[in-house]
Automatic annotation (TrEMBL), chain A:
Pfam families: BPD_transp_1 (PF00528). One of its GO terms (cellular component) is plasma membrane. Belongs to the binding-protein-dependent transport system permease family. This is Sugar ABC transporter permease. Signal peptide: none annotated. The lineage of its organism: Bacteria, Pseudomonadati, Pseudomonadota, Gammaproteobacteria, Pseudomonadales. It comes from the Bacteria. It comes from Pseudomonas leptonychotis. SUPFAM superfamilies: MetI-like. Gene3D superfamilies: MetI-like.
Amino acid sequence: MKVHNNKAWWLVLPVFLLVAFSAIVPMMTVVNYSVQDIFDHSTRYFVGVDWYKQVLQDTRLHDSLLRQFIFSACVLLIEIPLGIAIALCMPTKGRMASLVLIVLAIPLLIPWNVVGTIWQIFGRADIGLLGWSLNSLGISYNYASNTSDAWVTVLIMDVWHWTSLVALLCYSGLRAIPDVYYQAARIDRASDWAVFRHIQLPKLKSVLLIGVMLRFMDSFMIYTEPFVLTGGGPGNATTFLSQTLTQMAIGQFDLGPAAAFSLVYFLIILLVSWLFYTAMTHNDKTR
Amino acid sequence: MAEIRLRNLAHSYSRSPSGPADYAIREMDHVWEQGGAYALLGPSGCGKSTLLNIISGLLSPSHGEVQFDGKVVNALPPEQRNIAQVFQFPVVYDTMTVFDNLAFPLRNQGMNEAKVLAKVNEIAEVLELHPLLRKRASNLTADEKQKVSMGRGLVRDDVSAILFDEPLTVIDPHLKWKLRRKLKQIHEQFNITMVYVTHDQLEASTFADKIAVMYGGQIVQFGTPRELFERPSHTFVGYFIGSPGMNLIEVLPYGGGVRFNETMLPLSPALNRRVAEMPGAKLKVGIRPEFIHVWDGPNEDAFCADVVHVEDLGTYKILSLKLDGQLLKVRLQEDQPVPQRQAYLSFPAQWLMLYADDILVETKPMEVQP
């Protein structure tokens, strides 16, 4: 006979409380805002799904959502292969290995607004090393007025800031592969490409999954760096979702639509992350 | 297929070795003949795997030469030595099917697909991997994976040699025996030189025609299982081979032989002459527990020993005795009477080995000379 002992629930309670305070309560607050039109703390109206309808039809949001997807796709397409390539080239032991690790970790340790400031100055045509050099070479470059210059600068900034994370994750994954795999591959006369394709890449799968998810979520929520660098401009060219949202919530104080949009935003991230996860772990489950 | 010769080979992992203790392999000369089935037997850390990796080229020796059919191959990497090696733990390419795993070394050689198919099928047949060929290698059990690893070594029949580094460690005991038989069959079928590293004497003697026993970075004896048993040329071989190992007793020379405490063991004149040539050597006598003769009663040739302990192992018994303060093990067959309290022993001269500084004292060369 099964004995039911409900005392065990007490053991779950601390976690439940923690999650409630960290996630459920704030989220329910947002849900609360998203279904009401609030003027002050005594004047509010229940509006149902009206804000959602409005948000889903807002072309400004459509545009920044599209920009956001393009940006995240570029980030992943550049940073993941580049991170793997850097990890493969990194020295495995000795003083050089430690040195490279430290150098790679530096961008990760810099506060995000400082990263934005660094690139803002670096790219300026009058005093910035990058901007001045390019212009002196006869290449016209101005991230403040040219849309593609702004995009390229934001992308390169993100690549500079975050490729290290992918590289470090892959480096740790590569170090975890036992030597015997490489030895067996040499005995089997495998080419370098075959070693990468059949040993290193499969063994990197789990760290790459983490890398892809982290980079997708972070890039999809990017705010500080482009805000400091370009302020979203020129025009709205580098205004990504979180910035649009912030303008809506804090700039215009449209709390209702902003809350509704936050939830849609959240669901998009959840959905895309789930797709990545399912696609990358697909093989393990079906066989 | 090749004869593998090691000349003045030594290896040290330290960059500036200062003494013999720094060497994983001490200077040795050795020949593995073409087509032989060899075992490399020794305790953990004696240098077996190091030696294997030097032969396959995964390690480059710090001294001496490795020759395949008389050609020095020191500078060749493993992929150019045409050698197969199976490791202690299974290595499979997870993303490939079993078939592709087995075909991998062949395809890397540029073999055409029709031939690849034939070879893979042949090896799958021998290793009973047929039902798994379409399965992905990542979903196999440990021993299936090891069979695939072995298959990748065996599928290339043009190799100079196949090296096995304790390949059956992860395999279930009942399968171990089967796979060992399989390897032996494959050896007979393809006539490839095989070197099999193990620390298990049973495994070594069922697989190999000749066993090299390694101890402290050296091959201390190379011979058939029977030679290792009957005439261990080093005390370590005596101790390591056999269950229980050889009885080894430290002795001192006296006029006509050697003695320990009050017990005198007379030696042949030839041996006595050899002992006289080596003053100061540390002498030991060794005799296998199987070869100590137990008399039914007192006898003028027999020593009297106290019975300490009897261990019944089913088909035979191990008798622990104390003779003049020295502990001895004797192996009694099932039908032999078991002595109570006291046993009467003698040491047949042909089975009594004399060791000087752990090396067998041979008398043959002396007797040949006039």
